[in-house]
Amino acid sequence: MTSSRMLVTDFDRLTSEEELEKLFSVHGKVRRVEIVNDKGLGFVEMFKKSEAEKAVLALNGSEFKDSTLKVQEARPLGNRDWGHTRPLKSGGRGRKSRR
Q1: Are 4 and 52 in contact (CB under 8 A)?
Q2: How many separate domains does the chain show?
């Protein structure tokens, strides 16, 4: 892993950031947790890469609140803000404009 930031998916949509922090803190000190939407998608950042690696190995595929978690290293965002997605290009939804 090159980062201490992880993408976490497929958790129960009612899960809180505090619950994810508690789950991941067993594997090291959690720097930040952000749930992006109510569809079971979020990010967890650890203080150390080695702790993030341990969390990925331990938690990917594990059961949490009747869901099977997917945990992997998050891709870098470049200079954008942490956890935010890119806006759609003009035209939206991949349609070609009719001219």
Answers
A1: yes
A2: 1
